[in-house]
């Protein structure tokens, strides 16, 4: 039997792992039976928490998912705000669908085959075809069922563009600093993170006035795209406020957003799918304990510092490794033309970045830093180096190959300023790419990364240069990782760039392009050529 999303409520199943917050929560389902009546009453009471409003005889179908031929199916995790977005949209449209709760610590084959790039929820499967990424799913639902229920996007093209801009603002600009508040474990970290996120709430307060045009929602009279995109985080915002002792959407400072938040949470389609705040709080406290343990491992007072420069692929390696491990650290940007005393003292031999300072002790050289991070925090995230001794040696071999054999000819291409220089340098670099293409086949063993199912040492070493490859290609008119010639590496590069930890650490390509053009201009000048 198919059930309406409006009748489903928050489904809390088994052991789950939330997609973007990496937290674990166990909901045991135990039914103490003394007689038939008691069992039924206890069962009804338990199911009422999970599926309010659904008749008991229909609840098993609702929990497992119905759907004729699985025509409309949603893969998600109960606590994910990204999944909540989709459930709200489907509820607003009054659509019936099959919901499949995913355990992201043991991802299902359906999830992996439906979203092979990001391997994340939500995934909406419609007629057997998957649609991924929450904002993409929202627009898909609105376009396919445009005549059903309220529309998420306005009819006017300019208003649609404005809505998309603010929805993306929530994802790309508001969320990262709020995530830092979410992940903070000390009062000092919380104060810093809260200070950084408040300006974005101020911006959203102004955006509400622009988008709502004096009405109740960003979308006007009814909840729209921006309402769903931002509103899906509201329970999480309240829970983090409770733990951190903050008030992000302060009624005195942000009256419009505060009133909007209450209106949004009162919408039927929202109430039916928003997770219980108490359950979210319990999950977050469990996550908070884990983060605190990591912070303690990183040294008392959060003494984990990284000295780097924003454009350095070697510093990017260290950033990626720290992000993969979920570690909090202080990043200190260095001016390599006016090196700080801390840098000179921490790396007196090479006087270069990156330098990782852990508990006051410096660790230098990017590949050394990667292995240090992997060994110091072995229980945090997948390891960078495999367990098998021979596989570890192979990974180290290829990481060394990249730095010592691949990099020098590519560096010549990067520094080339004439067509003749570029042609010669490119010709010298291509054979090394051919070798790396074969190495990918050897190391990946048919899987997504050099490290297999997950990013490993070689992925981080090579991948830290991928944005640089693209920038140099654009200026030089080359295509180093040509998909026709090097299909394995080309596909790998896109997968690597889509990894969350990588996206967090990678510099903006446009900013890097401007930096590179300035570098070439200096090289081409008389002073640079001497």
Automatic annotation (TrEMBL):
What range(s) does the GST C-terminal domain occupy? 156-292, 388-519
Q: Which GO terms describe its biological process?
A: glutathione metabolic process
Q: Which CDD domains match?
A: GST_C_Tau, GST_N_Tau
Q: GO cellular-component terms in the record?
A: cytoplasm
One Gene Ontology molecular-function label: glutathione transferase activity
UniProt domain GST N-terminal: residue ranges: 70-149, 302-381
Q: Which reaction does it catalyse?
A: RX + glutathione = an S-substituted glutathione + a halide anion + H(+)
* The entry's keywords: Transferase
- Which range is the signal sequence, renumbered to this chain? none
UniProt entry tagged with the keyword Transferase: yes
Query: Is Protein biosynthesis among the key words of this record?
Result: no
E.C. number(s) listed in UniProt? 2.5.1.18
Top EC class per UniProt?
A: transferase
Listed Pfam families: GST_C_2 (PF13410), GST_N (PF02798)
Question: Per the similarity annotation, which family is this?
Answer: Belongs to the GST superfamily. Tau family.
Q: What is this protein called?
A: glutathione transferase
